[in-house]
Amino acid sequence: MLGQQINNGARIRGMFVFGSSLVDNGNNNFLKNSIAKADFLPYGIDFPSGPSGRFTNGKNVIDLLCDQLKLPLVPAFSDPSTQRRKIIHGVNYASGASGILDDTGSRAGNAISLNQQLRNFEEVTLPDLEAQMGFRRRELLPEFLFVVGTGGNDYSFNYFLRQSTANASLEVFTANLTKILSGRLQKLYRLGGRKFVLMAVNPIGCSPMVMASRPGKPWLHSSVEQGSSPLQCSPEVLGRWFKDTTSSCCEVMALNRGGNGVLCKKEGKACEDRNSHVFFDGLHPTEAVNIQIATKAYNSNLASEVYPINVKQLSMF
């Protein structure tokens, strides 16, 4: 019955996930002409079923939030089997290399933009969900979390790569991104979404990829890192929990010609003590870091980490 407690006192039936590789759980596996894939070892080396398309060694933040909320793992939209009863606890639409802007993923060959992710939700999943559950969307959707984790690629693989020819300042570019993202969120609200979790952009300047490609550019560490975030870009802070805060755990390869070591080398080596590393590849965190992010997102009371309330509190409404 709708409106009743479902899991551990929470009123959450499932979640719909939108974003980029930090929350992608396998959508890019099914994309032709995409080089932003993680369906091979050493990705998934610590995941129960092995390589799955998650850009980390084990679980990503979405998986861990599902664990906290006692929900089953959310299926990937692009998987042909994601239909009928498989969607009743939500769907993941996220796509590695994608961004808020439609053209952000072009350097990776193919990616599902945030705009297209929302269309997939509205045009494919919603009618199916209503049919499976026997309720209208405005009755169903308030019981789902809408998680959005995107924006970093718009800086790393769009603005900063074309900065020499860009007409807009960083401030203007950010304002435009914010306006577009706001429009996407308003669309989800109009469709019936009521509980939103917006993930902050991970500290771009910390990543091995950026430090290798732009040494001596400290402005990258602070230029887009604003707002609440469970992951702080500071060796002093990260060093409290992790021995290695700067290098990749796996052997990395170029994302494309002229790239700077983003993805793991296929069937390449991975470090043995993965729990001591912040980064698994040139950009994405290890499961150990994802655990910290998800745990803080779920129950932290620090405004510097979550704002205005945490996921546990949100799930009770």
From TrEMBL:
InterPro entries (alphabetical): GDSL, GDSL_esterase/lipase, SGNH_hydro_sf
Database matches in Pfam families: Lipase_GDSL
Gene3D superfamilies: SGNH hydrolase
Location(s) in or outside the cell: Secreted
GO molecular function: hydrolase activity, acting on ester bonds
Domain of life: Eukaryota
One biological process term in Gene Ontology: lipid catabolic process
Entry annotated with the keyword Lipid metabolism: yes
Key words, A-Z: Hydrolase, Lipid degradation, Lipid metabolism, Secreted, Signal
Gene Ontology annotations for the cellular component aspect, listed alphabetically: extracellular region
Family according to the record: Belongs to the 'GDSL' lipolytic enzyme family.
Name the UniProt record assigns to this protein: GDSL esterase/lipase
Native species: Salix purpurea (Purple osier willow)
UniProt lineage: Eukaryota, Viridiplantae, Streptophyta, Embryophyta, Tracheophyta
